[in-house]
Amino acid sequence: MRLLRLLVAASLAVPLLPRALALAQAPPAAPAAPPTFATTKVEGNDNVYIFRYQGHQAMFVVTSDGVIATDPIGLGRPQAVTTYIDEIKKVTSQPIKYVIYSHNHYDHITGGQPFKDLGARFIAHKNAKAQLERLQPPNIVMPDELVDQQRTLTLGDTTLELLYVGRNHSDNSLVMRLPKEKLIFAVDFVPIQAVFWRSMPDSWLDEWETSLKRVLALEWDRLIPGHPGPGGRLGNKQDVENLLQYMSDLAAVVKTAADEGKCYDTAMKEVKLPKYEAWGNYAAWFPGNVERYCFLYRSGF
Ligand SMILES: [Zn+2]
After folding, report:
1. What is the pTM of this model?
2. What distance in angstroms lies between residue 187's CA and the mean position of ligand 1's atoms?
3. Ligand 1 centre distance from Cα of residue 73 (Å)
4. What is the distance in A from the centroid of ligand 1 to the CA of 196?
């Protein structure tokens, strides 16, 4: 009986002790996962919005004569496109007149048909159309109108410039500039405080820096990226300067490795740029960035 009492007491006490310890040692609650999508009005504006779905973003502009939307961001998730349209309808009853493609990569421009069904006209750089005709991807609406070097789109009270700054992350990236709002929307070729995507496929390294300098020469204060920046912040000109410095530092260090015969594999393991360790995706993608610069020094482009 006494033994039984002891066992009962032990069975009550024992679970309490670790639980108390567990409570005392519990780490702070993990931050809640961000919601699947969000629509944010860009601060200081009445008409410019960012629609984010998971890790992709698109800008849309509400004018006095309709809405200008950008990338449908619907690859593998058609619900992102219908959500995007629903979100636009929550802030305005204006019709969606245009969808503008930032560049031809599928993760940004797949799935625009619901916009087309509402009567939107699609605009892209002329090289984007050529790429789409060559690659024939499924579920991408072909552009109705093309931009070569520059086009100014005026809709109601809003002016939006579509600017080609040369080849970089693709051969058809358009910078969308709102001169009055001093905002630009630029996708993938200007990551904010982050390294480039893996081995930078489909890229023109020799012209990339020139295109960044052209972006710097434009008049704007804030940059809306195609993937959320750190903490969701927008970019600024210092970010572009920093990115140019990163490219220059990376080029120098990989050139040395190439001269020492370390490209590709040894360089990808050994080359580091600790100055940029805190940048987004450094651990995962920096070796790929090294690989791309190795290719430049081995192949000349
Ligand atoms: Zn891209």
Report:
1. 0.89
2. 7
3. 11
4. 10
